[in-house]
Write a structure and sequence with these properties.
Rossmann fold; two-stranded antiparallel ribbon; 5 helices; 34% strand; binds adenosine monophosphate
Length: 175
């Protein structure tokens, strides 16, 4: 089986969650399938191991799961992009629009310390409208690093989120 087939077989779609009309991509069924989870991380490791990545940055909270496993596999540091108010040290924050209202993500100001011209791989489980990833990309740049690529397990192409990002995007499944 190739990686797309493995992911298609292990990710569950839950209709009308958290509200009517949303087809929610549930990755918990991928995480609890040890072979599928390992295949995904191995696949991403092969893609990124020769790209001189210094850090993997993951978006709260599902980006933490994939990002930390991948950073371990790549032998590089992991940086969390968190929802507002969770990080204890000095932060940089970025607001972004939701369908109704705003949300905000933060990064530690010294997240990429000790590395000159740090190269970062941004990761999340899914890109929908791209608002979250755009805010995360902007924070990484403000913290002094370059986003080499933004990686998603699933891209909801019809929402055109990729157009919001400046970095190249790589998504394994397109829906
Ligand atoms: P967006 O900012 O619109 O690109 O939304 C991306 C964030 O919302 C990601 O962190 C996703 O985990 C989550 N998300 C949005 N739509 C879905 C969906 N249909 N299924 C699962 N997660 C979603």
């Amino acid at each position: 089986m190739d990686i797309k087939e493995i992911l298609n077989n292990s990710i569950r779609t839950v209709p009308d969650f958290p509200q009517k009309g949303i087809m929610f991509k549930d990755i918990t069924t991928l995480l609890n399938d040890s072979k599928a989870f390992k295949s995904l991380i191995e696949f991403l490791k092969v893609r990124y191991e020769n790209k001189n990545i210094d850090f993997v940055a993951g978006i709260e909270s599902r980006g933490f799961i994939f990002g930390s496993a991948l950073s371990y596999a790549l032998n590089v540091g992991f940086v969390p992009v968190r929802k507002k108010g969770k990080l204890p040290y000095t932060t940089i924050a970025e607001k972004y629009a939701l369908e109704y209202g705003f949300d905000e993500v933060e990064i530690h100001i010294d997240a990429f310390r000790d590395v000159k011209n740090p190269k970062v791989l941004l990761i999340d489980d899914l890109i929908a409208t791209g608002g979250t990833a755009k805010a995360a990309e902007s924070l990484i740049k403000k913290a002094g690093a370059e986003v080499v690529e933004s990686c998603f397990i699933i891209e909801l192409e019809f929402l055109e989120g990729a157009k919001k990002l400046q970095s190249p995007i790589f998504s394994i499944l397109k829906d």
